Amino acid sequence: MKRILLSITLITAVLVAFSCRGPEVPAGSAAKSLAILKDPSTKKVLVAAHRGDWRNYPENSIPAIESLIRMGADIMELDVKMTSDSVLVLCHDSKVDRTTNGKGPVSSYTLDSLKRLRLKRAHGVTTDSLHMPTLEEALLVCKDRILVNVDQGSQWFPQVIAVAEKVGCSDQILFKKGGTRAQTTEFGKSVVEAGMTFMPIVNIDAQGSSPTIDSYLDGGPMPEIFEVCFSKDNELTEAKIRQLSKAGTKIWVNSIWGSLCGYLDDDRAYQSQQDADLCYGKLIDLGFKVFQTDRPEYLLQYLRKRNLHD
Predict the structure, then answer these.
(1) In terms of CB atoms within 10 Å, which of 23, 27, 65, 239 comes out highest?
(2) Rounded mean pLDDT of 246-260?
(3) Is residue 270 classed as helix, strand or coil in its secondary structure?
(4) Domain containing 217: what range?
(5) CATH number at residue 235
(6) Model confidence over 40-93: pLDDT tens digits?
(7) Looking only at Cα atoms, what is the longest distance across the chain?
């Protein structure tokens, strides 16, 4: 009986994924975004969606990924957790309470039992037929179509590598870690050796951030991309950001929350064209070339008007 239920669940997941597909995205879309990511001279700006298109579909769901791909975004940011039977699934929280009609830690569920739960939309309404996808199911949808930032996944790094290699999309994966060059060297080396892209994280407002930035600027090859967080928009912060930008590396900004981007965030930008120029425009002028956003459709429209995104 359990095998029959699991088979029905898997078939349903596949049908849902295909039913959500819009016009087929060219197979080279991920490769094109990756080429832009690795080109320090390009003016193009890449768009990463925080947990997918969660305003219209449950976060970290297959339909949320498909919707994002149809928009033309470049990067799907997703979160992973491990089930009790050692399967990686997409979930931000350690518990299923907020995002499904179930309760308790993800780690207390088998994959079979998780698949019986139904996902919730952003406003808390339970869907009729959407279930939590595995990382493998998600990567199969993303393969060749969109880059993937695996968040909260460093503790399961070997398992993520195994899934990505199985699907054949290792070159589409971005992994990140905070710390100085010395603190991130071994992990970053492992990421690169796995064929993925490594992204160090720098919190400019944090005490001791200058030595962290200097550790990357003083000798040795620069990473292809940095994630930069800051809560204060002032001259000192701007000087540090421009210093990184001029060093020939891409800089990723989290416009999802004000405390991560000097309050030049999505919701503030969304109020008007003037506010969009004040927020998105300023961040672009500072040198940011990758935006993690909670409003991917709006940001894409803004970038296309400025000829900064295809």
Answers:
(1) 65
(2) 93
(3) coil
(4) 28-78+142-305
(5) 3.20.20.190
(6) 889 999 999 999 999 999 999 999 999 999 999 999 999 999 999 999 999 999
(7) 64
Specify the length of the chain in residues: 310
Cα distances (angstroms) measured from residue 268 to each of 256, 265, 295: 10, 5, 11
Do 264 and 292 touch, CB atoms closer than 8 A?
no
Q: What tokens appear for 297 in the block?
A: 């459709």
Give CA–CA dist 243/227, Å, rounded. Answer: 14
| CB 74, CB 32: distance < 8 Å | no
Inside any domain, residue 85:
no
Residue 131 annotated as catalytic: no
**Is 123 a known active-site residue?**
no
Q: 208: left (phi > 0), else alpha (psi -120 to 50), else beta?
A: left
- Residue 199's contacts (CB-CB under 8 Å, 6 or more residues apart) are 149, 174, 175, 176, 177, 223, 224, 225, 226, 227, 252
Q: What would the pLDDT profile of 176-227 be if each residue is shown by its tens digit? A: 998 888 888 899 999 999 999 999 998 888 776 777 788 888 867 888 999 9
pLDDT 10s digits, 131-161: 999 999 999 999 999 999 999 888 999 999 9
pTM (predicted TM-score): 0.89
Choose, from 50, 123, 131, 309, the residue flagged as catalytic.
50
